[in-house]
Design brief:
The complex is a heterodimer of chains A (263) and B (272). Chain A has 263 residues and is an all-alpha fold. Chain A is built from eleven helices and no strands. Helices cover 84% and strands 0% of the residues of chain A. Chain B has 272 residues and is an alpha/beta fold. In chain B, a hairpin with an 8-residue loop joins strand 1 and strand 2. Classes of the chains: A mainly alpha (263), B alpha/beta (272).
């Protein structure tokens, strides 16, 4: 308890120091507000424009969450198909790596051209960059089941469905979560990147990425800072949501979740 | 080369009460076309009577584990025939249980869920299952750990869960592949006495793979010494030690004699 208090005190201390340093820099170098607003100005903007800020926040959250959820669903399905045959894996797994290496900024304009600007395009971009880590990790988890465990099920004349639901899927769950953890980090980045290209056509109606380009064009630097802050909060929320789910599903039996518990 | 005699074609009939019968069984792994096939077992004949405890011992690569897999129907012989109580191994799975070297517990299931796995797979009702699992845990002395997860158990406790799970389907034939190899010697001795107690109560037939001569002698009615390249049964040694076998059995001069004889034979097989 005492340690938690001191850790919190440290974190607050670091934050205050940074804020003071920020304000001092503006004062020492006489930086104009359109280049770097003061922490106080940013805080004031957050309060004054809270409704449009939360509006953008939820639009981006929706795009990122839907892209991530669909990628978990499709990614697991693809992994299940890959797990059926080594031949299929050898043939198609390299393409999932390609999926991971292709720069999203390069294909985002293409997707917008095909799908049209808006939530769907942004979700699609998020989905594409989240897919690869989920396929790769889940496949790995599905195929690394101990041979004797499979034999155990075969001895009981277990059906293919029983082996899948009672053995392969629970065995793959920790690996699936590794994939989801990676994907949740890039989901928010993907959604914001997508919005930079295809946020919305009407002003004030776009997500965080769209509002960032808008604020930049208008030289509303204080609002830009507020948006960056909101994007960070969104990233944190995704991270903790996944951590919580991972703990909930795995803490009874798996090492990775137990380590988090003891820290 | 395979010769078909009446005996090899009709093993069940020729052996009366034989629970497990191998007749002219050979097993090769690998590609026949590439001529790289490796002969793991060559022309094995074996007849195990109901209630016998037979140990397989021999250098690695002599096909001990393959023998168990053949009985379990997890692999098929290249030639020859195997009968379990007059049935083919694939049809006999219901009366056969397999205990692997590592306990092979599912880490996401509690002890009672692990023990109940096989019952669950054969769609036993929930009430019936709970009843059976409780009795099985009682049998192996793990009632207090029913709700624990495998990670919370010691190696010995995990093996107890594995044994309870194997007993859950009331097997007639029990296959054990070095089940106590990872345990310390004291636990191993203790487990040996307990597995004999279970056999006495339940009367199954056992095929037991081990590397420990003392363990094989203590447990068995017969010890089969196997030789490699190609795998075959080289010696068949009956163990005539009195029952019940307890700690006192290990002090008998005859016990020591068996160990000496088998160890010597084993060295002979290994140096061939």
């Amino acid at each position: 308890m005492k340690r938690i208090f001191y850790n919190a005190l440290n974190a607050v201390g670091v934050l205050l120091t940074l804020l003071v340093l920020w304000r001092t820099l503006i004062w020492v170098f006489s930086i104009p507000a359109y280049m770097l607003p003061t922490p106080f100005a940013v805080a004031k903007t957050v309060i004054n424009r809270f409704s449009s800020l939360t509006n953008s926040f939820w639009i981006t959250a929706l795009a990122a969450a839907s892209g991530l959820l669909v990628s978990i669903f499709i990614g697991t399905t693809v992994a299940l198909i890959f797990a059926q045959s080594q031949w299929l894996r050898r043939m198609l797994l390299p393409y999932t790596i390609l999926l991971q290496t292709v720069p999203i900024v390069a294909i985002a304009p293409l997707i917008i051209m095909w799908a049209g600007a808006g939530l769907f395009a942004v979700s699609l971009i998020t989905f594409i960059i989240c897919l690869a880590p989920i396929i790769a990790n889940t496949t790995q988890g599905l195929v690394s089941v101990d041979e004797n465990m499979v034999n155990l099920f075969l001895m009981q004349n277990a059906s293919g469905a029983q082996i899948l639901w009672k053995l392969r899927l629970p065995h793959a769950l920790p690996s699936l979560f590794i994939g989801v953890r990676i994907a949740s980090g890039i989901a928010v980045i993907g959604a914001i990147t997508g919005e930079l290209f295809a946020g919305s056509s009407s002003i004030g109606q776009g997500g965080l990425g769209y509002s960032i380009t808008y604020a930049l064009a208008q030289l509303q630097t204080d609002y830009l800072f507020a948006l960056v802050l909101a994007a960070s909060v969104l990233g944190f929320l995704f991270f903790f949501a996944v951590m919580f789910l991972e703990y909930y599903f795995l803490h009874n039996w798996h090492e990775s979740a137990r380590k988090t518990e003891s820290q | 080369m395979t010769t078909y005699t009446l005996n090899s074609l009709l093993p069940a009939r020729s052996n009366g009460l034989a629970e497990i019968a191998f007749s002219g069984v050979s097993k090769s792994y690998g590609n026949k076309a590439a001529k790289s096939s490796q002969k793991v077992l060559q022309h094995v004949d074996l007849s195990v009577q109901r209630g016998e405890f037979v140990s397989l011992i021999g250098p690695s690569g002599c096909g001990k584990s393959t023998m168990l897999k053949l009985v379990a129907g997890l692999t098929s012989p290249t030639s020859g025939q195997i009968c379990i109580d007059g049935m083919t191994p694939a049809n006999a799975r219901e009366i056969v249980s397999y205990i692997f070297q590592d306990a092979t517990l599912l880490p996401w299931r509690t002890v009672e869920q692990n023990v109940g796995l096989r019952l669950e797979l054969e769609h036993t009702t929930r009430e019936r299952r709970q009843e059976k699992v409780a009795a099985l845990l009682e049998l192996v002395g793990l009632s207090h750990a029913a709700k624990s997860y495998p990670r919370q158990l010691s190696g010995g406790m995990k093996m107890r869960v594995s044994i309870a799970r194997a007993m859950s389907t009331k097997p007639r034939v029990l296959l054990m592949d070095e089940p106590f190899a990872a345990l310390d010697e004291i636990s191993r001795d203790h487990f040996n006495e307990e597995i004999l107690r279970l056999q006495q109560e339940q009367g199954w037939t056992a095929l037991f793979v081990t590397h420990s001569v003392a363990e094989a002698v203590f447990l068995s009615t017969r010890v089969l010494i196997m030789a490699p390249h190609p795998g075959r049964i080289a010696h068949d040694i009956p163990i005539n030690l009195p029952y019940p076998r307890t700690e006192a059995t290990r002090q008998l001069a005859a016990f020591e004699d068996y160990i000496t004889t088998i160890s010597k034979t084993l060295r002979g097989v290994q140096s061939q």
